[in-house]
Amino acid sequence: MAPHDIRRPFKRAAISDQQKRRELSLQRQAQNRTEAQLQARRLASSIFSLPNQNSDPQPLESVDLIPEPIVEEPETDAGDISEIDIRQAARLKGSEARRWFASQLMLPEWMIDVPDRLNEDWYVFARPSGKRCFVVSSNGTTVSRLRNGSLLHRFPSALPSGAKTRESSRSAQSYCILDCIFHELDQTYYVIDMVCWAGISFYECTAEFRFFWMNSKLVESGACEAPSTYHRYRFSLIPVYSCDHEGLQTAYTGTVPHVKDGLLFYNKHAHYQTGNTPLVLVWKDETCSQYVIDTDNKGQVPNQQQVVLELQDNGQLVTSDDPPVVLGCLNATFIQETGLHSGNLVRFAVNDGGLTFVDGKLEKADLHYIGKVNRARAFADSYSKIVFQYMVRHSPLRIEHLFASMGTVSEQESNEVEMVG
Amino acid sequence: MQEPTLYKLIPAIPFCIHSFPQNSVYQKGKKVMALEVTQILLSAQSVDGSVRKHAEESLKQFQEQNLSGFLLSLSGELANDEKPVDSRKLAGLILKNALDAKEQHRRYELIQRWLSLDVGVKTQIKTYLLQTLTSSVYEARSTAAQVIAKVAGIELPQKQWPELIGSLLSNIHQVPVHVKQATLETLGYLCEEVSPDVVEQDHVNKILTAVVQGMNASEGSNDVRLAATRALYNALGFAQANFSNDMERDYIMRVVCEATLSQEVKIRQAAFECLVSISSSYYEKLGPYMQDIFNITAKAVKEDEEPVALQAIEFWSSICDEEIDILEEYGGDFSTAVSDVPCFYFIKQALPALVPMLLETLLKQEEDQDQDEGAWNLAMAGGTCLGLVARTVGNDIVPLVMPFIEENITKPDWRQREGATYAFGSILEGPSPNQLVPLVNVALNFMLTALTKDPNNHVKDTTAWTLGRIFEFLHGSTMETPIITSANCQQIITVLLQSMKDAPNVAEKSCGALYFLAQGFEDVGPSSPLTPFFQVIVQSLLAVTHREDAGESRLRTAAYETLNEVVRCSTDETIPMVLELVPIIMMELHNTLEKQKLSSDEREKQNELQGLLCGCMQVIIQKLAASDATKYSFMQYADQTMNLFLRVFACRSATVHEEAMLAIGALAYATGPDFAKYMPDFYKYLEMGLQNFEEYQVCAVTVGVVGDICRALEEKVLPWCDGIMTQLLKDLSSNQLHRSVKPPIFSCFGDISLAIGENFEKYLMYAMPMLQSAAELSSHTSGADDEMIEYTNLLRNGILEAYSGIFQGFKNSPKTQLLIPYAPHILQFLDLIYMEKDMDEMVMKTAIGVLGDLADTLGSNAGSLIQQSLSSKDFLNECLASDDHLIKESAEWAKMAISRAISV
Question: Does B689 touch chain A (CB under 8 A)?
Fold first, then answer.
């Protein structure tokens, strides 16, 4: 048995450069693999088809500085844009972005009757008054877009990839899309829903899950903190309550830092769905909103309720719902005299005959022709909006009805008492 | 669908990491070779090549025709005292080689072959071997001792040869000294060959008793004492129980310490070797003996012969290793300390006496030790130990060393100046920067002057090395006060560049210093203090690579390594100069290809130089590819670069160049889908790399490059996938390929699937069973050691990455249902990993990601399966609560994917 070699490295760096090269290579490969994985994971599974390559995003600077026209009313013509994957959408610029975002918000129906199991399956919260918008953070910038897709602000934020800071450099894939209301008075974005966070899509997640994440992630990110150099606007969470007696009461009368514009009700099991949905409802009365009855374009409440309907080929006047609801019919002579065409949006006043319901379904409406509407407008009114506005003027759905639907407090409590006879 | 070509190539291959092919059946020849074995064995050692060759042929034939007879006659030759020493020795050696080999699969074959021999033959061979131990010829005894240990290494784990240890122990009591010596030697070898758990404690006790008694001062024969001392070195691993018994431990330690004082230098050396081994195996038991051991080692370092003194210093270095490890595990946070062994702070306690002892050794340098690669002397060992002590105790060492430095650094004797400088360099790692920076600020100017003006090569070498250490440990963006300022930066660089023209050993150290100087500016931001000097640094380094004597002291290598680091640390300001470097390095590489008809020596040099140049290209490409702007500028060179790499490959016939392969990985990453045009020419080398079982590093690097290519080409890689998958599957089922390459191959499956999506369909029938059997294999690891647990984690990570890639590859495809049948097994695998509780963070992250990928791709098809699995509940919750943000991120992804799959 020979003596054992005990020589140690002398005046040598602990690692050879070749080993370093190997390790750096492995590191790069592992990182690339992780990124490829993450990218695959972040492609939304089924709601959108895979990206079509025809929409090369334009370079950032070229469009950024052009002020965007404010469009008063939403557009519908999303065209081929609607097929775009959300990952790409986060990078869209200019008019493409406007068109895409205009079609992506989840829009509440108006509450015209109280849904079943309100106290079990629903959340409620006070809706801030302000501009409904999508906030998108990506590649070191944050952009907010109104519901017609037009740009509201471009700013740095503490959202993931929301500002160009050193830490954010590695997360090119990491973008966020939040559904917000911008509240002018305190210059705050109130987050009402989360669509994507750090590149992960929440479209197919229940509201319950989305709200859970929103609560934990938003605070973690630092976005709720006071504005600073890298964080121009504060974001704020809105307290969301289970819609039981107490929750509804708190949302309805509780003090909030923002001006209230009605209450929003979210079905706990509903996924984020673009366009109108009966699984999110808005309700308001004078106590919780300044804008209960629709105003005309001069800001005045008209004497008669006005509705906007779309003229069909066969002369029928329909709502924007899918499938549409027919509220009336114009005869061919009248159409010819007024020069209307199929597809036109037409404004009517609701006459004294009002709306007639049979078994809860609209049977007929007494309408009076006013005229064609502004070209910029692309949607007819929805059925729920028309009915809600009608009810507000005649027999409003009151807060008491909502409370009544979930039984009285004492009834609820008595359910919990075990009967011993 | 087209019949997959794979099917013909690899019918049902098993995944293989532990199992080996069946041994072939050896025919028992009838021809008995009674004749001249002796003569053949002697001829096989003849100086005459043709005689030797003929003899070797005969031996080979004999072995092939009649293995039993062959082994039997060899053992008979070894045992026969009438035969010449040389034929006996060779007989023993061939026997030994017939029982063991370096390559694991070959070794396994030999073991199986031995076990399958006729019992009678084996018994006869073993009898011959034991008989040889009593021979009067030392060489025969010693050779037999080794062969016996090899046989024991095979048979004891099989519960065969139970009487061996008993009969060896009975030898101990025999009168002839040489029998006792040979028996102790055998026990030593046996302990080296056999794992402690196959020897019962009773036998262990008896072996140790015999060995320690043989070491005792009362033993009259030095030969016996030496054999016993060397045997103890190997037997220490068996002494776990005995070291826990105070009395037995005291006894062993006393005998070892006494042996360090023996008259015989070899015994003293062997005894110190035992102490070194004890210091790492039984660190926690050493407390009561440390005072005595210090006295013994101090005496040896001061007075004893160098081999003994070196072992004495090694004892302290080894204690430092232990304490550094323990303190590292403490991580400065005692509340969460997980170390099994507490730190006893032996070094801290010994410090006041230990440091002067080590400083004294620093003045015992040899002339020209810096030019001699293999040198290892007292000064080197002492200096190395001093550096370890500094890392162990930190600040406390500074006041003990500074007076020595101050006293010696200006002395006329170069030994004193060098010793002082070395001492300073040694303590730069360990103490806090607060302690060191003021000292360095004072010393820096002196060092720079010494590097240019000192007349002694040795002093300059150590000075340059010390500057490198200063920059390595005290220069960088994390330092509060910078060592290098705008005031001294130019001077430092000027001196280093000047010194790069000095003798090769000094120039090499200066390159090293420049390496760390550049490294410290790595994350300095867009504007680096190096910018004004970038060009002259690069030019100087290139000039060094062209020096006539650049082959000495690994100077050329050091210059390229430094160039690489300078490139890595380049900034936006200097990146245009990195781009200019591309044609220069390409030209260098081109030049290596022009030389024709090389001698084997020249070929080796060419090969080495190509390695350095490809390494440099790799670093440059990786740097340029990191930003879009420079990546596009580099693209103009991509074709030429690739062409050069292909020519480098073509220089060799059988193997591929590892560095060129690494560089190609970087190139694929840079070029993206454009790499497709190189595939027709490159593919054969890729395949060759994947077939290189012997140089497994090359194979591993090539597997990594396959991943790069998949990500670069995406679906364009499809035409090459049949071939690649075939090679990868062969690799996995090979028992020759180093096991470390197998986990990355599985990860590579994932890369391929992610790239080609549902086209992976045709490989599912091969890949999935392979993954499944590997997953099963990875779960049979109970009682595994740390190394095995680490490997299991790597293997599982690879398997899981494969599953992730496959699921994600099939996402949104109508063929998703093809994966449904595999889901139950994969979920079981996840549950099993969770329940075994020994996964590391990496596996945890990947595993929970797979759960998400499975849910994401299979959706409601797997909803109920997922809900039934443990992973979707406890494991997921554990990951959600993890502090590791990567695990948490994957878990949150999984939670979301599951909630979708369940709710749809």
Answer: no
10-residue block means of pLDDT along chain B (904 residues)?
Answer: 38 43 34 64 85 87 86 89 88 90 83 90 91 90 93 90 88 82 92 88 89 86 92 92 91 93 93 94 92 93 92 95 87 56 90 94 86 83 94 94 94 94 95 92 93 93 95 88 88 95 94 94 83 94 94 91 93 91 93 83 87 94 88 91 91 77 93 92 92 87 94 91 92 85 94 92 90 83 72 92 93 84 92 85 92 89 85 89 87 86 73
Which residue from A25, A26, A41 is facing B856, i.e. has the nearest CB?
A41
User: For A72-130, what is each residue's pLDDT tens digit?
Assistant: 233 333 334 444 555 555 555 555 666 666 667 888 889 988 888 888 889 999 999 99
Q: Closest Cα of chain A to B352: distance in Å?
A: 24
Q: How many CB pairs under 8 A join A and B?
A: 129
Residues contacting B428, CB < 8 A, separation 6+: B390, B436, B440, B466, B469, B470, B472, B473, B474
B270 close contact with A: CB closer than 8 A = yes
Q: Which amino acid is at B584?
A: I
Cβ-Cβ contacts under 8 Å for B701 (sequence gap 6 or more): A22, A25, B658, B661, B662, B665, B689
Is the whole-model pTM more than 0.95?
no
In this structure, the number of other CB atoms found within 10 A of the CB of residue B552 comes to 15
Q: Summarize pLDDT for A129-138 with one digit per residue, the tens.
A: 999 988 988 8
The CA distance from A16 to the nearest CA of chain B, in Å, is 9
Return the residue of B nearest to A200 by Cα.
B893
pLDDT at A88: 58
**Token couple for B765:** 């029938």
Please state whether the peptide bond connecting residue A51 to the residue before it is cis, i.e. omega within 30 degrees of 0: no
What's the gap in Å between the CA of A204 and the closest CA on chain B? 6
| Predicted pLDDT of residue A291 | 81
- Are B665 and A209 in contact (CB < 8 Å)? no
Of B273, B317, B560, the CB nearest to A4: B273
A204: chain B residues, CB-CB within 8 Å: 900, 903-904
Quote the pLDDT of residue A418.
42
Q: Is B66 helix (H, G, I), strand (E, B) or coil?
A: strand
Nearest by CB to A200, from B468, B805, B893: name it.
Answer: B893
How many angstroms away from the CA of B385 is the closest CA of chain A? Answer: 10
Window 363-422 of B, Cβ < 8 Å to A? 370, 375-376, 380-381, 383-384
Nearest CA in chain B to A39: B808
Q: Which two tokens stand for residue B781?
A: 């690891």
Which residues from B are below 8 Å from A202, CB to CB? 896
Whether residue B223 lies within 8 A of chain A, CB to CB, comes out as no
